[in-house]
Amino acid sequence: QVQLVESGGGVVQAGASLRLSCVASGGTSSKYHMAWFRQAPGKERELVATIRWIEGNAYYAESMRDRFHISRDSAVNTLYLQINALKPEDTAVYYCAATPNGRFDSYYYTVPHQYDYWGQGTQVTVFS
Question: What angle do CA 73, 105, 5 make, to 5 degrees?
């Protein structure tokens, strides 16, 4: 059973940067696809970025490609999300997700139902 614990959220002013972390335990990270999703109040959960752990290849939702960067550190089983130039519309709960490799035929897993394991989320609030 994989457990995911996010941290790094907070209340920040527009233009600031944050780095979110997700520590994975109970499994071998290289055997999983991992991703960051976010959910704003009244909206559906949406993909920010996903990464194939071994290769390090990443895919970003189209609107996230310029200010978001996903990365991982295998030595500490941690997934990161760097967010730069934060905007009020980035206000959301950010979730880390994981699912075993090979569950689906697609190279990247980009929708919530493809992920089996979820963290509790970390709140990011951006004020102008």
Answer: 30
State the amino acid at position 67 in one-letter form.
R
CA dist 47 to 34, 59, 77, 83, 84, Å?
11, 10, 21, 14, 17
3-state secondary structure the chain: CCEEEEECCEEEECCCCEEEEEEEECCCHHHEEEEEEEECCCCCCEEEEEEECCCCCEEECHHHCCCEEEEEEHHHCEEEEEECCCCHHHCEEEEEEEEECCCCCCCCCCCHHHCCEECCCEEEEEEC
Per residue in 64-122, pLDDT tens? 999 999 999 999 999 999 999 999 999 999 999 999 988 899 999 999 999 999 999 99
Rounded CA Rg of the chain: 14
Task: Report whether pLDDT(28) > 80.
Answer: no
